[in-house]
């Protein structure tokens, strides 16, 4: 069995020393922190990606350098497994171990351990494809990553500056190229062609669409949406806003999907742009999240979040499945997290199976794979639709008995192709939403009226140790610190339609509090009361207690 190229690793590792006194964790979204302290992490992730590929007989592994919706000065990195899905969870801890090795010697010894534990044949080829978003720290971090690849002698393909979902698409298409499972052409062009031609077929014969405003969060979604618009031509007129990818500090700043979701308001930059009734959406910094919204006649803001997208899309698919009389063979189900608005869960549960899983896309994705057709979106707008292989085979082979069935089947086939099944994809999801709206003849208001959101509030609490907070029941209840859940239950009882839960964030050093209630003021009050409980319970300094906490 070949040995690790220790000399190359040593020489290059010395160029990327780990800062002392910094600990790293491969969390829900990979490694994510200030871009200034990620150099050694990127180098080591380069090595890890090569080893993961060797472990999988030279299948291509993806590496994405992004911190998504986080502030511009943050950055991050995550690995993508061969089918375009998130890194297998047992390897998350390998990643954490490598990132925290304090010296080159320790790194090399950790690598030897990893090879043994994970049974890696080092003589196998290593193949990786990588990309980054538009963050200013990206080029330097990618150089560190490339040193990691070089140390391992990996075969590499640089996908440049692109969106996270496009990188996931590339990983899957590269690995399925020339097989019966081919997912498309392994190029940017292949991606845009696949999505746009499916969309064009889906909306063929429908009245022309009115222009859609896209807030690109001043990120990589801007160039991506521009390219997509060329492929769409007249089928979907779009107006791009917040496209300043070279303006320092602009990324995700007072714009983008996370801003809209958290603040429940219009990005200020759109105030003089958006017309009442016009459809608009926001992407996040790496274009895998999508939030829709519109202004009513009184210029009141209305948000159409991931739950509203789930409802729109799942109902449409269910109706198509009914038309083709395949309800038994094509079971449609929905996956949500505790952050899903209670009204959406109620609406959906009355119509289809709904499952609640812990936060983080990998949990939703895996649960959605259990259905023939699984629709999943986090409330924050990250999600997609998964079709099992048997479901796809049936949809492409079934013989329709009537013209209506033939049309419905064709729509299902085109939905399969418009959707990026590897991961949530803002641009693909946007095309899917636009297609369904066109079929239903809905504007924002009609879509919004399917159910009324319960007012909700999300609050962050800074605590000294978020790991002291442990949850059960898909994060809806706290088991630790002991006794805190009972106090939350007591509070919740006092609010009409009240619901609240507390969980440690997987991406930030905070504990999150969510609350909803029948009235906005009540949801806010409940959230701030629970936040106060959490703060005090965690031993927060009374002098620093945020004044809004009750
Ligand atoms: C409330 C919320 O929006 N949480 C987000 C956030 O996770 P936290 O574990 O809550 O920090 O980032 C994750 C990764 O992007 C995303 O999957 C998740 O939905
Ligand atoms: Mg993102």
UniProtKB/TrEMBL annotation:
Mg(2+) binds at residues 68, 284, 286, 288. Residues 458-531 form the Alpha-D-phosphohexomutase C-terminal domain. It is an enzyme of class 5 (isomerase). GO terms for biological process: carbohydrate metabolic process; cell wall organization; UDP-N-acetylglucosamine biosynthetic process. This is Phosphoacetylglucosamine mutase. Binds 1 Mg(2+) ion per subunit. It catalyses: N-acetyl-alpha-D-glucosamine 1-phosphate = N-acetyl-D-glucosamine 6-phosphate. It comes from Scleroderma citrinum Foug A. One of its GO terms (molecular function) is phosphoacetylglucosamine mutase activity.
């Amino acid at each position: 069995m070949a040995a690790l190229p220790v000399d190359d690793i040593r020489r290059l590792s010395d160029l990327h020393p780990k800062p002392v006194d910094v600990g790293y964790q491969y969390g829900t979204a990979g490694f994510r922190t200030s871009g200034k302290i990620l150099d050694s992490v990127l180098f080591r992730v380069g090595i890890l990606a090569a080893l993961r590929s060797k472990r999988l007989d030279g299948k291509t592994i993806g590496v994405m350098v992004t911190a998504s919706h986080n502030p511009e000065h943050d950055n991050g990195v995550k690995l993508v497994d061969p089918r375009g899905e998130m890194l297998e969870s047992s390897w998350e801890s390998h990643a954490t171990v490598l990132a925290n090795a304090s010296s080159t010697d320790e790194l090399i010894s950790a690598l030897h351990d990893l090879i043994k534990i994970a049974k890696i044949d080092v003589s196998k080829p290593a193949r990786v494809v990588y990309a980054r978003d538009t963050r200013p720290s990206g080029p330097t971090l990618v150089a560190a990553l490339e040193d990691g690849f070089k140390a391992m002698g990996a075969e590499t393909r640089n996908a440049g500056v692109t969106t996270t979902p496009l990188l996931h698409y590339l990983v899957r298409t590269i690995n399925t190229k020339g097989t019966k499972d081919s997912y498309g052409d392994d190029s940017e062009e292949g991606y845009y062609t696949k999505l746009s031609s499916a969309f064009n077929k889906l909306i063929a014969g429908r009245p022309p669409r009115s222009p859609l405003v896209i807030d690109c969060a001043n990120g990589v979604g801007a160039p991506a949406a521009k390219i997509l618009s060329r492929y769409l031509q007249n089928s979907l007129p779009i107006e791009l806003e917040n496209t300043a990818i070279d303006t320092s500090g602009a990324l995700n700043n007072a714009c983008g999907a996370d801003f809209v979701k958290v603040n429940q308001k219009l990005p200020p930059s759109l105030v003089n742009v958006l017309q009442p009734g016009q459809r608009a959406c926001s992407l996040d910094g790496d274009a895998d999240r999508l939030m829709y919204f519109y202004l009513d006649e009184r210029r009141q803001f209305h948000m159409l979040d991931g739950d509203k997208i789930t409802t729109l899309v799942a109902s449409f698919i269910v109706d198509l499945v009914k038309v083709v009389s395949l309800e038994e063979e094509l079971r449609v189900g929905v996956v949500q997290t505790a952050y899903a608005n209670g009204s959406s869960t109620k609406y959906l549960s009355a119509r289809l199976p709904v499952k609640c899983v812990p936060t983080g896309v990998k949990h939703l994705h895996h649960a959605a794979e259990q259905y023939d057709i699984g629709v999943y979106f986090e409330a924050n707008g990250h999600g997609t639709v998964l079709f099992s292989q048997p479901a796809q085979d049936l949809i492409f082979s079934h013989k329709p008995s009537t013209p209506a069935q033939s049309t419905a089947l064709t729509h299902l086939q085109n939905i399969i192709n418009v959707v990026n099944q590897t991961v949530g994809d803002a641009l693909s999801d946007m095309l899917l939403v636009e297609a369904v709206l066109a079929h239903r003849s809905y504007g924002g208001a009609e879509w919004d009226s399917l159910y009324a959101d319960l007012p909700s509030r999300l609050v962050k609490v800074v605590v000294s140790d978020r790991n002291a907070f442990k949850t059960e029941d898909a994060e809806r209840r706290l088991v630790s610190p002991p006794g805190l859940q009972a106090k939350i239950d007591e509070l919740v009882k006092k609010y009409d339609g009240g619901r609240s839960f507390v969980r440690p964030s997987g991406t930030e050093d905070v504990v999150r509090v969510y609350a909803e209630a029948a009235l906005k003021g009540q949801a806010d009050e409940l959230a701030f009361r629970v936040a106060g409980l959490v703060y005090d319970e965690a031993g927060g300094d009374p002098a620093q207690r945020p004044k809004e906490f009750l």
